[in-house]
């Protein structure tokens, strides 16, 4: 496959540098594990516990390591302070989400997915939990993003950020009868366009939990998935100028719904991404709440939205009524500055059409 077609030399350098950072994330994970093993040997031995200030210092050391070696997209830090009743009950937790390159597959073009990493440090033990999220995208998507919009220096990371935020929504739409064709799209970065993809099965196994206790003992609990796992795979990026009216309408509905329920949505997003935390040590399902879920059901039943997601061109083609819809800031003519510096490329008439 010919890469970087139509991209400028400057854009190619930016994309290659971004990809190199992501490709090193696996090495970073191995480095984090190796460092923790050394730290455990120096802090935990013969049943010795560490103080809460030591826990915080160790957490800062590991955080610096993760940020330098794995370049995470998002971080959540939590602390449980010791009390008079539980002087050894303190804990420090750091949760990360980032991008990694999946193992090469003949079925997909240079595939990337998202990982979550959680480190929890108490006076008695250190836990490291690593999981993968069922969302993925191809290198082709980053190329299209660089080509079709402006001011993008880290295309892979920008795509990863959006997918991390939309992952819980994508988990709620998979399997709905109106989307039995498995196609879906989500808004991208301040109305620049949309990420278009489909639900597919991808062979991937990479989840584990490692615990180092106060005696320096190593306990590994693998959490394997089956041979294949359902993923939402982004196939391409389409900028706002290229979206058909019904697609723009769909993106506006989804963006408005999420903005209206931002607090509820982001709480569910964090629960879905990281599963557990100091406040919620037992995994629970990520839920939007009754009002937010009801409004989402209404949005996903909208006729124009449902049609815009269909792969059949005879179904997803815009109607005369679609051209009269109020698209607001999703209208192609909204704003004076162009979204991208290059000339328009050939129209993508199907929602999941993949440009060569």
What does this structure look like?
By secondary structure, the chain is of the alpha+beta class. Helix content is 37%, strand content 22%. It is built from ten helices and nine strands. The chain has helices at 9-23, 25-43, 52-70, 139-148, 155-173, 245-260, 262-274, 290-300, 303-308, 313-316; strands spanning 74-80, 91-101, 111-122, 126-138, 183-188, 193-202, 208-212, 218-222, 229-239. Strands 1, 2, 3, 4, 5, 6, 7, 8 and 9 form a nine-stranded mixed sheet that branches. A hairpin with a 4-residue loop joins strand 5 and strand 6. Helix 2 packs antiparallel against helix 3 and helix 5 packs across helix 7. The longest helix has 19 residues, at 25-43. It is globular, with a radius of gyration of 22 Å. The termini are close together.
Give a quick rundown of the structure.
It contains 10 helices and 9 strands. With 356 residues, the protein is α+β, with helices and mostly antiparallel strands. The model is unreliable at 336-356 (pLDDT under 50).
């Amino acid at each position: 496959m010919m890469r970087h077609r139509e991209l400028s030399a400057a854009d190619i350098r930016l994309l290659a540098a971004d990809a190199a950072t992501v490709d090193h994330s696996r090495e970073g994970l191995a480095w984090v594990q190796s460092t923790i093993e050394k730290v455990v040997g120096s802090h935990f031995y013969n049943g010795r516990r560490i103080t809460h200030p030591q826990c915080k210092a160790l957490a800062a050391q590991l955080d610096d390591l993760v940020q330098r070696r794995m370049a995470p997209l998002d971080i959540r830090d939590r602390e449980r302070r010791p009390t008079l009743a539980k002087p050894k009950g303190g804990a420090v937790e750091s949760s990360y989400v980032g991008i990694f390159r999946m193992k090469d597959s003949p079925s997909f073009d240079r595939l990337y997915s998202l990982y979550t990493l959680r480190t929890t440090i108490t006076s008695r033990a250190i836990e490291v939990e690593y999981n993968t999220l069922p969302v993925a995208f191809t290198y082709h998507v980053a190329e299209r993003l660089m080509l079709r919009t402006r001011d993008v220096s880290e295309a892979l990371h920008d795509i990863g950020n959006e997918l991390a935020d939309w992952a819980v929504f994508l988990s709620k739409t998979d399997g709905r009868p109106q989307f039995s064709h498995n196609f879906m799209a989500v808004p991208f970065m301040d109305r620049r366009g949309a990420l278009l993809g489909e639900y597919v099965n991808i062979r991937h196994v990479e989840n584990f939990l490692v615990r180092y206790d106060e005696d320096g003992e190593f306990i590994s609990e693998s959490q394997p998935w089956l041979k294949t796992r359902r993923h939402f795979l982004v196939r391409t990026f389409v900028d706002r100028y290229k979206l058909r009216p019904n697609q723009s309408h769909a993106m506006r509905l989804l963006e408005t719904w999420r903005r209206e329920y931002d607090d509820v949505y982001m709480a569910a997003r964090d629960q879905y991404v990281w599963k557990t935390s100091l406040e919620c040590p037992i995994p629970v399902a990520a839920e939007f709440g009754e009002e937010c879920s009801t409004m989402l059901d209404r949005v996903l039943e909208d006729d124009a939205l449902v049609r815009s997601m269909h792969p059949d061109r005879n179904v997803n083609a815009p109607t005369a009524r679609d051209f009269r819809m109020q698209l607001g800031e999703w209208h192609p003519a909204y704003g004076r500055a162009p979204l991208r510096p290059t000339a328009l490329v050939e129209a993508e008439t199907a929602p999941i059409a993949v440009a060569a």
